[in-house]
Amino acid sequence: MAAEFRDYYEVLGVAKDATQAEVKKAFRKLARKYHPDVAVDKATAEEKFKGINEAYEVLGDPEKRKKYDTLGANWNQQGGPPPGGGYSGGPMPGGAEFQFDGTGFSDFFEQYFSGGGAKRTAGYGGGFPGGGAMRGQDIEGDLMVTLEESFSGSMRTVSLRKAGQAAPDEVQVRIPAGIGEGQRLRVPGHGGQGNGGGGSGDLYLRVRIAAHPDFRVKGHDLFRDLALAPWEAVLGTTISINIPGGKTVQVKIPAGTGPDDQLRLKGYGLPKKNSPGDLYVVVSIEIPPSVNDEERGLWEKLRDVSKFKPREN
Q1: CA pair distance 173, 280, nearest whole angstrom
Q2: Distance CA 220, CA 270 (A)
Q3: N or C: which end of the chain has fewer CB within 10 A?
C-alpha cells in the first residue's frame, strides 16, 4: 500500500526550480515562524514544524531532492521496495506490514527516504530446516529529534502497528540528553514476532536531528552564523545569543573581527559524557543596502581620514 504523497515544494512554498539557497531561505523563514518555542499555538506549530523539517530533509539534500524529483508523478506506481530506501511503512520481508506514528516523519518519508526498515539478521526471522525456535525480525525507522530535545533529553511515545493488529503498540522511548545524529535507540521486544517459541525482535530508531533555523550541528559542537554591522566588527561589541536549553550567552566580539572569523564558546554545545561540545559563532559582515544623506556624509568623511589601504596589505 503506497503512502500518501507529500508535495515538499508546496510545504516550503518554493518553485520546483528553486535554487538550494532559495530552499534554505524558505526553510529558515518558516522554521522560525513555527518553532514550538516561539509559536502561540504550540500543538499546531509542532506538527507544522515537523512537516517543514521533513520537506527540508529531502529538498535541502541535493541527492535526496534528485531522487524525489525522479519519483515525481510516478510515485504511486512504485512497486516493491522503494529505490534506495528501507521497508518502513511497507512490507517486511515475508509479507508482513507495519506503520509508524509519532516519529516526526510521515509514512511517505519512511517509505521512500528512510534508511531504516525491517532488518533480517542472519539466522533470524526466517525458517530453519526442521523447524525450531526463531527470533523475530528487527525493525528500524527514523526518529526526528529536535535540537532542544538533544540538549535536555525527553520522553516520546511512538506507535507501531503491525499487520493484523487491531490497535498499534504504544512504545515509550527515552531520548537521552546529548543524543547525536545517526545514533540508534533500541527498544527491546518491539520488533517482529518470533516463531516456535522464539523471542520477538527489537525496534531500532535512528536519530535524525531536526534542522534548526539558526544552528548547525557537527558531532556535539554547534555552529551559528552571526551577522555584524561594519562598525561592530571594527569597534567590537557584545551580543546576546539564545541557545537551546533555555540559556542566553553573551558573545564578546573583539575589535577588528573579520568576516568568516570563528569565535569559540567552550562548553556551550551539546551535552556529552565527559565534557560538552562547544559553540562556534561564525561571523559575517553585512553592508547597509542604502544610506541617507547624513550617513553618506559620515562614510565619505571616514574614507577621507582613514589610513586603511586594503589593497596594499
Answers
A1: 31
A2: 5
A3: C
C-alpha cell of residue 69 = 524529483
| N-to-C CA span, the chain | 66
Q: What is the pLDDT of residues 264-276, one digit of tens each?
A: 999 999 998 888 9
- Cβ neighbour number for residue 82 with a 10 Å cutoff: 24
> 108: part of which helix (H) or strand (E)?
helix 107-112
How distant, in Å, are the alpha carbons of 61, 208, 277, 280 from that of 224? 20, 19, 14, 6
Are 124 and 133 contacting, i.e. CB atoms less than 8 angstroms apart?
no
d(CA 85, CA 83): 6
Give per-residue pLDDT as tens, 158-216. 888 776 667 778 888 999 999 988 899 999 988 888 888 888 889 899 999 988 888 99
How many of the other CB atoms lie within 10 Å of CB of 26?
21
Give me the DSSP letters along 132-175: --BPPPEEEEEEEE-HHHHHH-EEEEEEEEETT-SSPEEEEEEE
